[in-house]
Amino acid sequence: GSGGGSGSADKGSGHKLVVGFSQVGAESGWRTANTKSVQDAAKKAGIELKFSDAQQKQENQIKAIRSFIQQKVDVIAFSPVVESGWDTVLKEAKDAHIPVILTDRAVDSKDESLYVSFLGSDFVEEGKKAGDWLVKEYAAATGDVNVVQLEGTTGSAPANDRKSGFADAVKGQPKFKVVASQTGDFTRAKGKEVMQAFLKSQPKIDVLYAHNDDMALGAIQAIEEAGKKPGTDIKIVSVDGVKDAFTAMSQGKINYDVECNPLLGDQLMDLAKKVKAGESVPRRIKTEEGTFTPEQATAALPNRQY
Ligand code: GYE
């Protein structure tokens, strides 16, 4: 400001780092926690965040990225709703010399020069953990174990990878039968709706594998409304580890939860600063995460942040 000097941490350039961030949407508890983490971290780091919510639509993300390019932001960060179809817009960012950081979800672009780093979970690993639990849980079972799967957003990295990781873990064991598999778009409402349809069309469901907690929570409502006991009549394995799921676990309604950490904000802002300063950054930064049994979830519940 005039006469006062900046006195801030902007390293004498007088220019605050500007990051354009295109978020997927607000489809789940995980997403809400992720958005808050990114916004809080930007504030803390003294970074100006231009935030845009794509409402789960790729076309909105492409528009947002183009607008960030026009505004000449320093760095673009985004969580791609689906994996495919990004090359053109990422090339535009590259031509404008604006570095792009992928956060949370990946793209399938062959050209690795289109982004500098990818910060997020290993979704294949998460799917494997869910499948490993199933294999152990039913180690003694001799008959068929009928599984229904609620998939995440069609074409998204977590839906693709959680499906394939799970399939890998159970392959070679023909007793595990995925009898129905459909997208619930990572939302509670859709999770409930699709589970209702599964309950009508499937005479015997032993296990529900949900690609995220919100769909599992929606499915729990459908199961209860059908007069069945979630966690007992139908066992449930899910992914994320949000507070509402931990509450359901403490009530015996979810049997196992694979953690996916949404608190990526600080690492993302750190990356943005380094990229802008011309420092080299790792191409891939994986989030560390665990798994929760009902006992572990119940113990973690009082301190769970999201
Ligand atoms: O698991 C789900 C959200 O991309 C990891 O997106 C994220 C997923 C998360 O809607 O709840």
Automatic annotation (TrEMBL):
Subcellular location as annotated: Cell envelope
Highest taxon, organism lineage: Bacteria
Record-level Gene Ontology MF annotations: carbohydrate binding
Pfam families, sorted: Peripla_BP_4
Gene3D superfamilies xref list: 3.40.50.2300
Main subcellular location: other
PANTHER family assigned to the protein according to its UniProt record, in alphabetical order: D-ALLOSE-BINDING PERIPLASMIC PROTEIN-RELATED, GALACTOFURANOSE-BINDING PROTEIN YTFQ
InterPro entries linked: Peripla_BP_I, SBP_2_dom
GO CC terms: cell envelope
The entry's keywords: Signal
Span of domain Periplasmic binding protein: 19-279
Name this polypeptide is given: Putative sugar ABC transporter substrate-binding protein
PROSITE patterns for the chain: PROKAR_LIPOPROTEIN
